[in-house]
Amino acid sequence: MPEKAQLQPGVYVGQFTASQLEDTFFDSTGWGKGQLFINGYNLGRYWPTAGPQ
After folding, report:
1. Contact at 8 Å (CB) between 36 and 24?
2. Which of 31, 39, 41 is nearest to 10 (CA)?
3. Distance between CA atoms of 3 and 23, rounded to whole angstroms?
């Protein structure tokens, strides 16, 4: 992943191996807005800050 956010849209592809079946989470700290897909499933959008509560 780049150190700083791009000013234009981009697609990033990566791999990971889950050694055990446990609860996991996606940490988007330091990233901009985007969508997360894993194994072709759209897990949803993410934003860098929380919206109004």
Report:
1. no
2. 31
3. 27
First to last CA, the chain: 31
Helices (H), 1-53: none
Residue 34 CA to residue 20 CA, distance in Å, equals 27
Condensed to tens digits (0 to 9), the pLDDT of residues 21-50 reads 888 788 888 777 889 888 889 989 888 777
Longest pairwise C-alpha distance within the chain: 37
> What tokens does 21 get?
């079946």
Rounded-to-integer distance, Cα 4 and Cα 32, Å: 10
